[in-house]
Amino acid sequence: MTYEVKSLNEECGVFGIWGHPDAAKLTYFGLHSLQHRGQEGAGILSNDHGQLKRHRDMGLLSEVFREPANLDKLTGTGAIGHVRYATAGEASVDNIQPFLFRFHDMQFGLAHNGNLTNAESLKQELEQRGAIFSATSDSEILAHLIRRSHNPNLMGKIKEALSLVKGGFAYLLLFEDKLIAALDPNGFRPLSIGKMANGAVVVSSETCAFEVIGAEWIRDVKPGEIVIIDDNGIQYDSYTNDTQLAICSMEYIYFARPDSNIHGVNVHTARKRMGAQLAREFKHEADIVVGVPNSSLSAAMGFAEESGLPNEMGLIKNQYTQRTFIQPTQELREQGVRMKLSAVSGVVKGKRVVMIDDSIVRGTTSRRIVQLLKEAGATEVHVAIGSPALAYPCFYGIDIQTRQELIAANHTVEETCQIIGADSLTYLSIDGLINSIGIETDAPNGGLCVAYFDGDYPTPLYDYEEEYRRSLGDKTSFYK
Ligand code: SF4
């Protein structure tokens, strides 16, 4: 579904480059491919012979850099950039990244994708020791930890700081003489490294950014790894050996662009396999398959191929409506669905439709789409979801952090089906999801985090633990 209506949002996208005369411009194009990961604000920080320059603001990338001068002033051969969707910290320009820290003896920039689970306790501790935070997001914490470390060398300081922050994080740090990328010990968020023809090294949340700038993928950053990029090339190091891959399965289901590859798996192909598996688990009679544009179209293709039903364009997305994610009320959100989607009566009229969507969050959007299809003449609407039911909150970088918001946390499948007005509701099984993605790894759950679905978090929840336990009440698990 459209990112905004569903209110299921990635925290951010990051992009960095070292060793190219057009570093900031290439960062702009890289970020442009990552815009789906955050539309609230954007920024680029460049490095011109050790001088760090920055422009950032609220809005889409094209709005932030509407004035060419804002990009032209970012000279230099190294840069990092960021597109933001806020999960932690309020919507304000102070929270737009990259952050820039200037000290009497050094300066560096920072861009972060993810969510720290011990941010509150670290922040309190740091403030008690005199630290002053300029933003309300959790992304500044690492910079304070680096600066306050007593380790005598910079890499030692960075490693120490990285071992203190917990949760999901992909960091890019731009220093006067190097670019550093680091990933959390579970690799919750994706981060890939590429190379350009002139030898410049690029780092991106998603590989789709490499295509745009003509870079070649080298490899993905591993959990617990630090990648140091400077004029001598790339160096791989780690700050912990206690690692286990648990990449966010929602990246494959919903967030990442279909043309991105994550840990050797193409996102579109994974979605097609999810759709095919969903068809095998689906138990109803139908005439046509209709995917909800855009992120469910790959799964709809897989479902149609496997089931032998025709894959029809029964829903059209209006590409030119205003972003609606800033609309606060439920009523406006519901209106937002109508602005974005139309059912094609000539296609669905008189048909039993299998409506494929990637997930159900609150149920509002699904109810509206079912209604649209029925109003357009569909005789039956069977909703088939290309992921298991979202019954638990995420603490690693997705913006739903309370169970009350999730329809599946509070209702059975039958109740949910009734609420959304469908004739049947089928979710993909957790095993079906894991097998469909198929990362080559020995890690549990096929190297995926599936905590959204089973509540089995790969790490302690630190500051969120108590609140989460309280929210569980007597409903300990949706599946058990
Ligand atoms: S809890 Fe869900 S959204 Fe969060 S990292 Fe795990 S799979 Fe992704």
UniProtKB/TrEMBL annotation:
EC number of the protein: 2.4.2.14
Q: HAMAP family this protein is in? A: PurF (MF_01931)
The pathway this protein participates in, as annotated, is: Purine metabolism; IMP biosynthesis via de novo pathway; N(1)-(5-phospho-D-ribosyl)glycinamide from 5-phospho-alpha-D-ribose 1-diphosphate: step 1/2
Top enzyme class, one word, equals: transferase
Give the family per the record: In the C-terminal section; belongs to the purine/pyrimidine phosphoribosyltransferase family.
The reaction(s) catalysed by this protein are:
5-phospho-beta-D-ribosylamine + L-glutamate + diphosphate = 5-phospho-alpha-D-ribose 1-diphosphate + L-glutamine + H2O
Record: active site? C12 (nucleophile)
Identify the taxonomic lineage of the organism of origin.
Bacteria, Bacillati, Bacillota, Bacilli, Lactobacillales
Q: Which UniProt keywords apply?
A: Glutamine amidotransferase, Glycosyltransferase, Magnesium, Metal-binding, Purine biosynthesis, Transferase
Which amino acids does the record list as binding Mg(2+)? S295, D357, D358
Q: What is this protein called?
A: Amidophosphoribosyltransferase
Q: What InterPro entries does its record include?
A: GATase_2_dom, Ntn_hydrolases_N, PRTase-like, PRTase_dom, PurF, PurF_N
Q: Name one GO biological process term.
A: purine nucleobase biosynthetic process
Q: What SUPFAM superfamilies does its record include?
A: N-terminal nucleophile aminohydrolases (Ntn hydrolases), PRTase-like
GO molecular function terms attached to this record? amidophosphoribosyltransferase activity; magnesium ion binding
The chain positions of domain Glutamine amidotransferase type-2 read: 12-232
Provide the function of this protein: Catalyzes the formation of phosphoribosylamine from phosphoribosylpyrophosphate (PRPP) and glutamine.
The protein's matches in NCBIfam families, at most eight in alphabetical order, are given as:
purF (TIGR01134)
What does the record say about how the cofactor binds?
A: Binds 1 Mg(2+) ion per subunit.
Cofactor names from the entry are: Mg(2+)
Can you name the source organism? Streptococcus oralis
